[in-house]
Amino acid sequence: MEIISTEYRIKTVLKRLEMIIDNENERIGQDPQFDLKLSNAHKSRCLYELTTLFRGGEIKEMAAAYGDQLRALKKKLALNAQRVEAHLEAVRAVADILKNAARAEEADGTYTEHQFRYSAP
Fold first, then answer.
1. Quick check: is 48 in a domain?
2. What's the angle, vertex CA 11, arms to CA 40 and CA 54, rounded to 5?
3. Does 121 fall in a domain?
4. Into how many domains does the chain fold?
5. pLDDT, tens digit only, all 121 positions of the chain
6. Domain range for 82
7. Whose CB has fewer CB within 10 Å in the chain, the N or C terminal residue?
8. Is residue 13 part of a domain?
């Protein structure tokens, strides 16, 4: 009975993980309202559940039955990693642009009254 329950749980978690990854791959960089942090938390939870479910002797044998699904999931995760990295690079680039613009604005050649007072002879 426990093996059937575990098989059902594995199927359920794999489907949920696949849905989360597909959703993230589709929406990242496209939907400004997309919550990457929340999606990542859901992914992490599914991966943790799978790790827990695949522990044990019989379960390792059962994992072979999910080989095709796990390989497909691995490909989706690889694509997901690329998209997340691209998104983070874009965020870093925007942050650098804003930081440089703020520095340029501060260094426009004008002085504050405080700076002028201490630089005068």
1. yes
2. 80
3. no
4. 1
5. 555 687 888 889 999 999 999 999 999 988 989 999 999 999 999 989 988 887 765 666 666 778 888 889 899 999 999 999 999 999 999 999 999 888 877 776 665 666 556 554 5
6. 2-108
7. C
8. yes
